[in-house]
């Protein structure tokens, strides 16, 4: 069923007139008169070259010129009927908020893109697109490159250490910010403080069902509530495939719900149990289809048979419940691969392996290279991002036909396939939930390639539990997680100017937490305010108005959690009090390691690397004799490491990486016996954390000694410790080895790379650079150059000058 559902219809007083209108604001009480935001109809900007009311495209506020160009860029002929209906919805055009639910692969991304283009061209406003994972942001940046080229739209990445806070003040406001949840929150704080939030007219959120997840969910709820109250005339469109309590989410958004249940490609669902494949129909009828014929002791579930029977004509994505299971299954498939499959697109696969070797300095795992040569691969968080990107590109191109991926990465894997096999109904050690099943099953069937998608769950002894998940279990409701970060949310609200207790209570009442727990909100807010005053994040209120203390301002600008800030400050004071001056890189790195880091420690390696540190750096661990005794005891007895020990082990990993450069990633993984993907993710995370600590130290006098040191550390980490190639290392996709080659060629500056063609760049790098990576590098170079120019314009404007001086 397709259609939109309004919340309770109320009599509304518009700010501009006394006329009452119907609105999508969902509240209780039949006779309330509630002021709402001004209507923002898409009448077109006078300066828009694309808007022409007489040149209609069939979509309100969108010219034929714009829509035709968009279709050409995305290589589509027509929109789905439901997409056109939604985009022409009167309430949407009037600027009302919406919750859009549609199945995975149903076309939500196209909706988001058209909405953002319409905002940019018709209202001359920027838009923010929020995604839950860094990997998804990076993927979208490259996908949006085509929009940037075709429509001259500025794409800005805010993920990990990317994205300037505060943002560059542009001469126009036509930016498309692509952000993680955490970076979007900082961006909104900064824009509000600069009184520039009004330039962002649209907030689009994908995977909004993650609002029910611990940690990330609270951040997402804070982000939505902050934008809604700081910019009441802005519009919010939240999208998801799996939400059980859409009415509560729509009420939280103060908007409408539009649902589309149709799927472009039919999905057939099966279970495999006791070597029998059984169809699960939409009517919940079980229809035995066939028995598996092969008898392989190494594959009692018949997964190899299920995978091989449709390749290479079709593709297969297999979800496993651990990294080891992915690699082991890939090894099994490698040993069972038929000769015809090995020969299929052999030359393409040889080229892909050579490209992988070039991007990893020939240090990629031999098992992955062997698998790629026969048309298969594994994909999990233990791989470097470039390895995962090579696998994804090869799978999309059809050069490889089978990918074994961890089920925990289902939300971050954009690899649709004809057949999805869920090898184990467990995600990690827990039975999968309905949402997790739908996330994995949703990858089956590629629009434009497949006429049907198939999802097969290997159930065996869990058959009844799996059938219950598929047939009976409802889509779970999203429960607010804001209570765990209520104090952080209140600090942000005070920083945004909502300083009165009554205002704070009313805002928290309007959150999902307030919608689901209306009776306890006032008490919770009062308790949080008292705790924040006691912990010195808030000043003692004057005439009922609260204000941020130095710690509060530090939290507001850095995004650090108020729960960890006292620990950070105490940690710094303790070390500083012991005469540790934080003058060495290791000492600064050590304070940037998160307090929740998790890593398995090899105590022989710990001792070896500890003894290689300078004497002053070893003091970070404590008295040498005591530390030696503790390490020897650990080597002898083992046991779970303490948080302090895991932080110091992580600091040694990152310190060695900084010392020898990013080319030592694989060497570091071997030395410290950890996954190379973990090292890369930790390195990126610490760059981001160093930035946050730098912003925090600017506002907190206790931390002032770090103000100049942390920015220097970030620059050093980004350039991989080599000043000669520092400029080139600011470009996404360029490795240290590539930079070493480029710096000796005519492409030795960012500007030169931005002007290069794909083939020219590939040629100078020995022809072993993936075309889409070359495209990414050139696009990134253009963005770096653009930002540098705009920063200079910003400096000139601040001096009261102009480009004509």
UniProtKB/TrEMBL annotation:
One MF annotation (Gene Ontology) recorded for this entry: ATP binding
CDD domains xrefs: DEXHc_POLQ-like (cd18026), SF2_C_Ski2 (cd18795)
A GO BP term, please? DNA repair
- Superkingdom of the source? Eukaryota
SUPFAM superfamilies named among the record's database cross-references: P-loop containing nucleoside triphosphate hydrolases (SSF52540), Sec63 N-terminal domain-like (SSF158702)
User: Boundaries of each Helicase C-terminal domain copy?
Assistant: 302-490
Indicate the principal place this protein occupies in or around the cell: nucleus
Q: Which InterPro entries match?
A: DEAD/DEAH_box_helicase_dom (IPR011545), Hel308_SKI2-like (IPR050474), Helicase_ATP-bd (IPR014001), Helicase_C-like (IPR001650), HTH_61 (IPR046931), P-loop_NTPase (IPR027417)
Where would I find the Helicase ATP-binding domain in this sequence? 89-261
Give me the reactions it catalyses. ATP + H2O = ADP + phosphate + H(+)
Q: Give the UniProt subcellular location, in the record's own words.
A: Nucleus
Which keywords has UniProt assigned to this entry?
Answer: ATP-binding, DNA damage, DNA repair, Helicase, Hydrolase, Nucleotide-binding, Nucleus
**Gene Ontology cellular-component annotations:** nucleus
PANTHER family, sorted? DNA POLYMERASE THETA, PUTATIVE (AFU_ORTHOLOGUE AFUA_1G05260)-RELATED, HELICASE POLQ-LIKE
Its recorded name reads Helicase POLQ-like
Q: Which organism is it from?
A: Panagrellus redivivus
């Amino acid at each position: 069923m397709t259609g939109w559902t309004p919340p309770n219809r109320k009599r509304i007083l518009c700010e501009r007139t006394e006329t009452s209108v119907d609105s999508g604001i969902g509240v209780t009480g039949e006779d309330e008169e509630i002021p709402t935001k001004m209507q923002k109809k898409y009448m077109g900007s006078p300066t828009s070259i694309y808007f022409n009311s007489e040149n209609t495209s069939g979509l309100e506020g969108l010219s034929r010129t714009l829509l035709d160009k968009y279709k050409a860029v995305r290589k589509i002929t027509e929109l789905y009927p439901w997409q056109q209906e939604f985009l022409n919805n009167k309430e949407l055009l009037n600027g009302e908020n919406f919750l859009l639910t549609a199945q995975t692969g149903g076309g939500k991304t196209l909706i988001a893109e058209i909405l953002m283009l319409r905002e940019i061209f018709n209202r001359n406003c920027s838009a923010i697109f929020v995604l839950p994972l860094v990997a998804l942001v990076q993927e979208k940046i490259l996908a949006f490159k085509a929009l940037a080229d075709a429509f001259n739209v500025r794409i800005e990445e805010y993920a990990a250490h990317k994205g300037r806070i505060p943002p560059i003040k542009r001469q126009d406001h036509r930016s498309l910010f692509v952000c993680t949840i955490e970076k979007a929150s900082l961006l909104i704080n900064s824009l509000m403080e600069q009184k520039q939030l009004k330039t962002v007219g649209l907030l689009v959120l994908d995977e909004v069902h993650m609002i029910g997840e611990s940690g990330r969910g609270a951040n997402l709820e804070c982000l939505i509530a902050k934008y809604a109250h700081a910019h009441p005339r802005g519009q919010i469109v939240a999208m998801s495939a799996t939400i059980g309590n859409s009415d509560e989410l729509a009420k939280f958004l103060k908007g409408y719900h539009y649902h589309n249940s149709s799927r472009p490609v039919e999905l057939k669902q099966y279970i495999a149990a006791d070597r029998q494949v059984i169809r699960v129909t939409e009517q919940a009828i079980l229809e035995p289809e066939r028995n598996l014929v092969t008898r392989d002791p190494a594959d009692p579930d018949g997964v190899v048979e299920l995978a091989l029977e449709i390749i290479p004509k079709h593709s297969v994505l297999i979800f496993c419940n651990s990294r080891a299971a992915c690699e082991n299954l890939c090894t099994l498939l490698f040993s069972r691969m038929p000769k015809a499959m090995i020969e299929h697109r052999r030359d393409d696969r040889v080229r892909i392996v050579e490209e992988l070797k070039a991007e990893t300095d020939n240090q990629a795992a031999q098992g992955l290279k062997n698998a790629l040569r026969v048309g298969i691969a594994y994909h999990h968080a233990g791989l470097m991002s470039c390895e995962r990107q090579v696998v994804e590109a090869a799978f999309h191109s059809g050069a490889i036909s089978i990918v074994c991926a961890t089920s925990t990465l289902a939300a971050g894997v954009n690899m649709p396939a004809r057949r999805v096999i869920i090898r184990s109904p467990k995600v990690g050690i827990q039975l999968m939930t309905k949402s997790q099943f739908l996330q994995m099953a949703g990858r089956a069937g590629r629009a434009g390639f497949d006429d049907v998608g198939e999802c097969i769950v290997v159930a065996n002894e869990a058959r009844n539990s799996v059938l219950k998940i598929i047939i009976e279990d409802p889509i779970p409701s999203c429960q607010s997680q804001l209570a765990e970060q209520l104090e952080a949310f209140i600090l942000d609200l005070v920083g945004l100017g909502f300083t009165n207790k009554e205002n704070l209570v009313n805002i928290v009442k309007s959150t999902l937490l307030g919608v689901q727990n209306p009776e306890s909100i006032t008490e919770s807010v009062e308790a949080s305010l008292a705790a924040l005053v006691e912990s010195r994040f808030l000043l003692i209120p004057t005439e009922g108005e609260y204000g941020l203390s130095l710690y509060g301002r530090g939290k507001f600008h850095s995004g650090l959690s108020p729960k960890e800030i006292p620990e950070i400050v105490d940690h710094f004071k303790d070390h500083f009090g012991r005469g540790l001056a934080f003058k060495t890189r290791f000492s600064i790195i050590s304070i940037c390691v998160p307090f929740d880091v998790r890593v398995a420690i090899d105590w022989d390696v710990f001792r070896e690397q500890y003894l290689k540190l300078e004497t002053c750096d070893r003091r970070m661990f404590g008295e040498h004799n005591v530390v030696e005794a503790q390490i020897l005891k650990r080597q002898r007895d083992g046991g779970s490491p303490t948080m302090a020990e895991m932080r110091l082990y992580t600091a040694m990993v990152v310190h060695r990486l900084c010392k020898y450069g990013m080319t030592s990633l694989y060497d570091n993984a071997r030395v410290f016996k950890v996954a190379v993907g973990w090292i890369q993710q930790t390195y990126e995370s610490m760059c981001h954390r160093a930035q946050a600590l730098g912003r925090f130290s600017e506002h907190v006098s206790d931390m002032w000694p770090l103000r100049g040191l942390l920015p220097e550390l970030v620059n050093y980490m980004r350039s991989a410790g080599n000043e000669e190639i520092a400029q080139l290392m600011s470009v996404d996709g360029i490795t240290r080895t590539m930079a070493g080659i480029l710096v000796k060629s005519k492409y030795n500056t960012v500007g030169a790379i931005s002007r290069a063609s794909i083939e020219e760049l590939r040629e100078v790098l020995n022809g072993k650079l993936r075309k889409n990576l070359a495209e990414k590098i050139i696009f990134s170079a253009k963005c770096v150059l653009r930002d540098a120019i705009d920063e200079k314009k910003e400096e000139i404007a601040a001096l009261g000058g102009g480009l004509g001086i």
